[in-house]
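re: ur question from yesterday

yeah so i grabbed the chain u mentioned. its 148 aa long if i counted rite. heres the sequnce exactly as i have it in my notes:
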Amino acid sequence: MTALRTYVGTHVIKLDVKGRLFVPAQYRPDFVERAKLMYRGDHLALYSESGFDNVVARMEELLREGRLGRSDIDDLMQMTENATVDSQGRLIIPKIMRLAVNLDAGLVTVGGRLDYLSIVPGGEDESAAVETYRTKADQALKFKDLGF
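ran it thru and got these structure tokens back, copy pasting raw so excuse formatting
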């Protein structure tokens, strides 16, 4: 596995009626040539090519250990689409994926995860991002207590 590229921050971004959304500028280079967009139940995960390679390597490891079956991996692959960010920084989210996680035109929240960007339905304003910070207060204090 390659070293993880981590993504940080919470961004409220507009999704247009065609399913296009602007990827935060600092992350665009990771997704320009090749990326993967994966359905994760309650959100979509945007992986860089190397990030997705790590996912595949982990799945292969779990398959060898007997913790995942071939059909599990097949299911995950069927819920993953190739994606790219165009020269203007836009990602096109396929309609079926938008419907699956209830992403409508309007604001969505793009949030940093350890190895991917999450895309979730947003609020009417940045209050969704503020609420994310507030709900994580206990976690922030835990890290503070650990010396971070």
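noticed a couple things. The beta strands are 10-15, 20-22, 35-39, 44-48, 80-83, 90-92, 106-112, 117-121. also The first helix runs from residue 28 to 31.
anyway ttyl
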